[in-house]
Specification:
By secondary structure, this protein is an alpha+beta fold. About 30% of the residues lie in helices and about 25% in strands. The chain has a single domain (about 5-230), classed as Aminohydrolase, N-terminal nucleophile (Ntn) domain (Glutamine Phosphoribosylpyrophosphate, subunit 1, domain 1), CATH 3.60.20.10. InterPro entries: Ntn_hydrolases_N (IPR029055), Proteasome_sua/b (IPR001353), UCP009120_prtse (IPR016545).
């Protein structure tokens, strides 16, 4: 499985991904799911991938070949991130159809992508591209997107992230979201990759990789657990006098 997050706030972007691609009892493999495509200097584009690894790799290869071969539509010719999302969706659909027609029984070629970055003076942003080729973007009300095993890490994102959340706080929130997911689902695991992009900088120079035994990640996990326990202990006790009680009805 996979878990990836793309946050787009006023100050910029935070992109986070795990690295586990298989979590069988005796078959645990690791593969980076954050992909930076080399483009012209006036743009920075990053992809996060989930789903079928063969499809994801085929899509990435096609994107790079289109740039190298000077295809009419490639990541260097588009003017808006929405065009990137549409182009990526079409390439993904093409690769899925080819794999689906390979004759392999029980083979599911679907892949989902997050694409984020900035082109020229256009605003930075993030898009989620579905296996069907359509896409959505973030909003002021929901400044983040997720792919993969998203349910365990969603509550903290909903409670903390706002469109004006500072980048450093957004990064912390993403790490807690990732840790919550790894704790509840063994199919999501380290290393954890994180990229912080400051708006209008056109630089991808703030990149972090956290291994399972990383001291900072361990400290963050410990403090989060302690504060959750303290908060739970401080909750008011159930008021049985004002609560409505219902009798247990037998069979």
């Amino acid at each position: 499985m996979t878990y990836c997050i793309a946050v787009s706030v006023k100050e910029g972007l935070v992109l986070t991904s795990d690295s586990r691609t298989n979590a069988g009892i005796d078959n645990v493999s690791v593969h980076c799911k954050m992909h930076v495509i080399a483009t012209r200097d006036d743009r920075k584009i990053v992809l996060l991938s989930a789903g079928n690894l063969a499809t994801s790799q085929a899509v990435l290869d096609q994107l790079r070949r289109d740039i190298k071969d000077g295809a009419e539509t490639n990541l260097n010719t588009v003017h808006y991130l929405s065009e990137v999302a549409e182009y990526l969706g079409q390439v993904s659909l093409d690769k899925q159809h080819r794999h689906a027609n390979s004759g392999q029984n029980g083979f599911f070629p679907a892949a989902t992508f997050l694409v984020a970055g900035q082109i020229g003076t256009e605003p930075h942003g993030a898009y989620l591209v579905y296996p069907e080729g359509n896409y959505i973007t973030t909003s002021e009300q929901t400044p983040y997107l997720q792919i993969g095993e998203n349910k365990y890490g969603k509550p903290v994102l909903d409670r903390i992230l706002k469109i004006d959340t500072p980048l450093e706080e957004a990064a912390l929130c993403c790490l807690i979201s990732m840790d919550s997911t790894m704790r509840s689902n063994v199919s999501v695991g380290p290393p954890v990759d994180m990229l912080i992009y400051h708006k209008d900088s056109l630089l991808l120079d703030e990149y972090y990789r956290f291994q399972e035994a990383d001291d900072y990640l361990i400290q963050l996990r410990r403090i989060w657990q302690e504060k959750l326990s303290e908060g739970f202990a401080a909750l008011p006790q159930l008021n049985k006098q004002t609560a409505t009680a219902f009798p247990v009805v037998g069979p």
